[in-house]
């Protein structure tokens, strides 16, 4: 069912397959786990993540839902309160706005409102981001909105390892976890250890070590940032790349440690600049690393426009490797 | 926007090493201010600026060797907004600050371009505040480094951590490294003199001058003076050369690719020997307009600074003519080699008591051989003879000098 080939302890796979493998593993290992969402069953998922799971696990555990995000996310929260471990798939972050009340007012608050009597161990997965010519209503990047809310954990797996490993860690968490999967990452191919090591849900990761500048990013912007770091390396500029991984809580210690060494930072965030997660990261650096800085902190964000439909305009609106390289040059004074 | 460039401090100079910046971005400089120190074959030279301006950006790092003519700093005219200071300071109608003042990649709205200079910097009273990063400030505080003396390599010329670390690690090079590299100076003298001999058709004249009146006048003039204020014979000869040149323009100026250009002003390159070997001939400016006492002061200052290795760029580039005096213990006569692009050099041998015919008698007189080497492309021996005769006549009336 899942196309995997063994190769010296590593498995050739894709981000999409890694998510599917993680869901399947969760379903196999814990009876309380079930998957619920629009088109996850018969259609196999809008992004083909859940293809084949209905046939393997049946309609009780792979549940197609009506087009009503408020209803099925609320149902997932209720199931979690009732002792289940639901994985709720919201097709994209764009549609999650219809479920904001359930997520922000219920999932995030019930433990607090109940004086600790009730936990909400729900996992909500959703696709996010632009880059597929889906126009302004289907290209949002709203991770920063969710990362604003106490009571939620917000993660953004940017690598195949994290796509594979973060789900089980999220299900093990007694509180609600939101997983953002960038639409451009699903097709990314790579290798995974045949037996993956357990992965922590929180904490940032240094994806590339360097000493001249720190590039801080997450999610779908990680490949662009790594490409920018390659380009900078060809000029003799050594860029460290940090993948935030977990957007709430933020791993301030890791970014402060890196920037204290490189003394310069550029934050790459597909969200709009105003009030973005990049603003929060920049503020943390100001609070905790001001005396380590050699240059103002740079940011590469999306243009402050509804994301355009035409390809050339969409590309121009989003962070790209060339923009990241330019921002690094500014920070380095070159 | 102007530029402050690596000067040519001699016909033989092709490149120089920037040793020290004495001004910082944002500082206002006036004509004649010393802006930088440049290491040349003649030693460390203090380089002056020749306009009133504001230093905009420093373009060359300390320790860098750059060819003559390379821009070392960009300048802006006073009142013009630039990389430093608030834009609001620009007068109405002044050009907007040019992008080249802060060379940055092409604009893109998503790249949040940090202000090249702090936008919130107060307009007044803070112009000399060092523009330094937070890290540079912290390290400077910890290691006791004065930020105002550190040259920035960061965005917009900001002082950043590595600059402070370098400054803290390095002993101040200035005093220790001053003073010429004699081997390099010898090579430079050789190159300039070879070029002169190759390119300039010299002719040589000499005239034996009776200095009895001049030395007698000097003796009486010095009698009431404290030793430190006494005049040297060299002051009289320099002054006489300057006055003689006033009416003989073919000996004072520069010969370049476009021909001879006489100079209105008379800046005499005064050859000064350096202990241990080596020779420089920095200018004393406008010798024809100085009193003897002023000239003596300049001469003392010049000799002291040659020994200390603190010459200024204009002193090396400005001489319009050269005088070389061997002094009392020197040889009888000296025939010089013209220092390009000048066209004449005077040589004064050692004055000595000699038998001399005065009227119909032989008397002991103080005699000195004066020589002139001049450029045949500009003048002939006849004109040179007249010049030496003028010089002789002037030295016979020392009170008029």
SSE topology:
The complex is a heterodimer of chains A (334) and B (401).
Chain A: E1 5-7, E2 10-14, H1 15-29, E3 33-37, H2 53-57, E4 62-64, H3 69-81, E5 85-92, H4 93-96, H5 100-107, H6 110-113, E6 123-128, H7 143-147, E7 153-155, H8 160-172, E8 177-182, E9 189-193, E10 205-208, E11 213-217, H9 222-234, E12 239-243, E13 246-248, H10 252-262, E14 265-272, H11 277-289, E15 298-302, H12 311-317, H13 321-332
Parallel strand pairs in A: 3-4, 3-5, 5-6, 6-8, 7-8, 11-12, 11-14, 14-15
Antiparallel strand pairs in A: 1-2, 2-9, 7-13, 10-12
Helix pairs in contact in A: 1-8, 3-5, 9-13, 10-11
Chain B: E1 2-5, E2 15-21, E3 28-29, E4 34-40, E5 43-48, E6 53-58, E7 65-67, E8 71-76, H1 134-143, H2 161-169, H3 173-177, H4 182-199, E9 202-210, H5 212-222, H6 233-246, E10 253-256, E11 259-262, E12 268-270, E13 272-273, E14 279-280, E15 283-284, H7 292-308, E16 311-312, H8 313-317, E17 321-325, E18 344-348, E19 352-358, E20 361-375, H9 381-395
Parallel strand pairs in B: 5-16, 12-17, 17-18
Antiparallel strand pairs in B: 1-8, 2-4, 2-7, 3-6, 4-5, 6-8, 9-20, 10-11, 12-15, 13-14, 18-20, 19-20
Provide a brief overview of the structure.
Chain A is of the alpha/beta class and 334 residues long. Chain A is built from 13 helices and 15 strands.
Task: Write up this protein.
The complex is a heterodimer of chains A (334) and B (401). Chain A has helices at residues 15-29, 53-57, 69-81, 93-96, 100-107, 110-113, 143-147, 160-172, 222-234, 252-262, 277-289, 311-317, 321-332; strands at 5-7, 10-14, 33-37, 62-64, 85-92, 123-128, 153-155, 177-182, 189-193, 205-208, 213-217, 239-243, 246-248, 265-272, 298-302. Chain A is of the alpha/beta class and 334 residues long. Chain A has 2 domains: 5-193, Rossmann fold (3-Layer(aba) Sandwich), CATH 3.40.50; 205-332, Rossmann fold (3-Layer(aba) Sandwich), CATH 3.40.50. A 7-stranded mixed beta sheet of chain A has the order 4-3-5-6-8-7-13, with helices on both faces. A 5-stranded mixed beta sheet of chain A has the order 10-12-11-14-15, with helices on both faces. A 3-stranded antiparallel beta sheet of chain A has the order 1-2-9. In chain A, helix 2 (53-57) links the parallel strand 3 (33-37) and strand 4. In chain A, helix 1 runs parallel beside helix 8, helix 3 packs parallel to helix 5 and helix 9 (222-234) crosses helix 13 (321-332). The model of chain A is unreliable at 1-6 (pLDDT under 50). Chain B is of the alpha+beta class. Chain B has 2 domains: 2-109, RNA polymerase II/Efflux pump adaptor protein, barrel-sandwich hybrid domain (OB fold (Dihydrolipoamide Acetyltransferase, E2P)), CATH 2.40.50; 182-400, Chloramphenicol acetyltransferase-like domain (Chloramphenicol Acetyltransferase, 2-Layer Sandwich). In chain B, the strands form 5 sheets. In chain B, strands 9, 12, 15, 17, 18, 19 and 20 form a 7-stranded mixed beta sheet that branches. In chain B, strands 7-2-4-5-16 form a 5-stranded mixed beta sheet. A 4-stranded antiparallel beta sheet of chain B has the order 1-8-6-3, with no helix packed on it. The two termini of chain B are 45 Å apart. Classes of the chains: A alpha/beta (334), B alpha+beta (401).
